[in-house]
Design goal:
The chain is α+β, with helices and mostly antiparallel strands. It has one domain. It is about 30% helix and about 20% strand. Helix 4 packs antiparallel against helix 5. The longest helix has 26 residues. The chain is globular.
């Protein structure tokens, strides 16, 4: 009985420790000296949230990066979305992305295997036209150098073919989005939100040291 109670206590304690660490490390900032360029200067990106998952929204074409080879309209259900001004990037577990288009399809098995790091990853790419700042879509201005560092991180998340091109997965949620084979792993320690946080830290943005929760990312953008 004593050992059974210890096992149960350990099982209960693990998620509590995880969330406590997520909150504490999300509050400890990296890049404390970060300052946005003045209005009208630099490159404006957005960090958007659906309340659980975060994406990074960037201009489709700029002097620093042309994302069109990574967001080919030929891979969309409706190629007319290729004319949109911006593109949103998100990172995640292949099984979770493909099998959970809405929370109605969520299963404990899919969530468990994603948390323990089973399976490959995908990059979700959505075409967005003229995004604006709002509560769940926060703008950030970056210098050209900071933006190039962000581009480098996001681009490294794609698993490219022998010709250096992203590998599309013939499936999307909407007319305006598509999936591509991802590079790297996914787990409870490096999930969709920590990918966003890591990309922003790499760019030099003030962001928590570890951001596995949506709130960990969005808090820093208030």
């Amino acid at each position: 009985m004593v050992w059974a109670l210890r096992i149960v206590a350990g099982i209960v304690a693990l998620p509590l420790i995880y969330f406590a660490a997520a909150i504490l490390l999300g509050l400890v900032p990296a890049n404390v000296a970060f300052r946005q360029p003045p209005p009208g200067q630099g490159i404006t990106i957005f960090v958007r949230s659906n309340g659980i998952h975060t994406d990074i929204v960037m201009p489709k074409v700029s002097a620093e990066m042309d994302w069109r080879p990574y967001a080919d309209p030929a891979h969309l259900r409706d190629p007319r979305w290729g004319g949109a001004s911006h593109v949103a990037f998100g990172y995640g577990s292949r099984e979770f992305f493909l099998n959970t288009p809405t929370w109605a399809e969520f299963s404990l098995a899919t969530g468990f295997w994603a948390m323990v790091g089973s399976g490959s990853t995908l990059v979700h790419v959505e075409h967005i036209d003229r995004p604006v700042g709002e509560e769940l879509q926060r703008p950030i201005r970056l210098t050209p150098e900071q933006y190039r560092r962000l581009v480098t991180y996001v681009r490294s998340s794609f698993n490219l073919d022998a010709a250096g091109r992203p590998v599309p997965v013939p499936r999307g949620y909407y007319d305006s989005d598509s999936f591509y084979e991802g590079n790297g792993g996914f787990s409870m320690f490096y999930n969709c939100n920590e990918w966003t946080g890591a990309a922003l830290r790499h760019a030099g943005v003030r962001m928590g040291l570890w951001t596995p929760l949506e709130q960990s990312v969005m808090w820093r953008l208030d």
